[in-house]
Amino acid sequence: MNKLVKREFDPADPPALTDAQRAELKALQAMPDDQIDYSDIPPTPERFWTSARRNPYYRPVKQQLTLRLDADVIAWFKRQTQDGRGYQRCINQALREYVEAQEKKER
User: Where in the chain are the domains?
Assistant: First the structure.
């Protein structure tokens, strides 16, 4: 008979660390980077990073703000959507693509 153990974890309220866990984290924090053993991790070829994409399931936290945009810009985005709905999402996507392009240039 299999015994199923079910545990619930709330990332917003994680359990307290044990003394042993605290000591291990402190030792790792004090360790210089050149002492870290990466031998079990294969090197990532440069071509991987040129085509790497953000996790499609990643959902960043949204922040509400007031932003003044030119009326013709808003009208254009509204025309790109059905019934003018979702235009803010389209503006956000356009801004995200711009930011990612700029970050790619910086690399």
Answer: 66-107
CB-CB contact of 28 with 21 (8 Å):
no
Quick check: 90 and 98 in contact, CB under 8 A?
no
CA distance 27 to 30: 5
Taking CA atoms, 34 is separated from 31, 38, 42, 44, 46, in Å, by 8, 10, 17, 18, 21
Cβ-proximal residues to 74 (8 Å cutoff; 6+ apart), any chain: 87
Residue 43 three-state SS: coil
Q: How far apart are CA 36 and CA 49, in angstroms?
A: 22
- Provide the angle, in degrees to the nearest 10, between the axes of the packed helices 71-79 and 87-106: 100
- What's the pTM value of the predicted model, to 2 decimals? 0.49
Write the pLDDT tens digit of every residue in 68-102: 999 999 999 999 988 888 999 999 999 999 999 99
